[in-house]
Amino acid sequence: MMGRLREIMPGSLTPIFGRMTLAAAVWLVAGLGLSAFVIWAFAGMAEEVVEGDTRRFDREVLLWIHAHFPPWLEGPMRAITALGYYRVVLPLLFVSAAAFYLRGWRLSAVLLAVSTAGGMFLTTVLKAVFQRSRPELFQNGYEAGFYSFPSGHATVAVGFYGMLTLILAYRARGALRWTIAALGAALVVLIGFSRLYLGVHYPTDVLAGYLSAPLWVVFVGVLYAAWLSVRGLRRKGG
């Protein structure tokens, strides 16, 4: 299969893809397929939101959360939601990227920065495009500005914390890998839920944030996995 790919690829791409293993090629195709699915799912949700078809669902879910989760969770939820603000994410990004760079993981540092910046930029553009107002179903003293769709916290949670988890889990082994993956996934989910608990986002805002971020993270992650595969082959080949 890889021999056939080498034959049909332009000469300028052969040095890159000619060294790619079958597993790396499969990951590349899978990543592109997942990206296509994410685009389709996000477009479908965006259309439903624009047409107002999700209004009842959004309202009922938010009110259910407000009615069934205790008030004492507000403190922890505020602390968790703070992890999604740029003023917190950017310093963490700087420290993490610097640590990776000093450790010799230079590409990991670049990927983390690109993933986070891409998520922030994508969120800003999409919010300006859709201009969805924030929910005002209940008051708890917590306020948020700018537009609502998609959730910037959900997008950045995946773009930064998701990519950070991917990098650390990829380099870990055994039980530690699964522990890192579980903790990272839990943090991403909790950041999204905190926005619903505080009443500053609709459920579809958070879901859209979770969908828009993977589009960028998958693309960056596929390039990362392919590069590691090519580098491994180069080392084996001397």
TrEMBL record:
What UniProt keywords are attached to this protein's entry?
Membrane, Transmembrane, Transmembrane helix
Name the InterPro entries on file: PAP2/HPO, PAP2/HPO_sf
Looking at the record, the residues that make up the Phosphatidic acid phosphatase type 2/haloperoxidase domain are 110-221
Pfam family membership, one = PAP2
Membrane-crossing ranges are 21-43, 84-102, 109-130, 150-169, 176-198, 210-230
Does the keyword section mention Transmembrane? yes
* Keyword Transmembrane helix in record: yes
Under SUPFAM superfamilies, the record lists: Acid phosphatase/Vanadium-dependent haloperoxidase
Signal peptide position in this chain? Answer: none
Identify this protein by name: Phosphatase PAP2 family protein
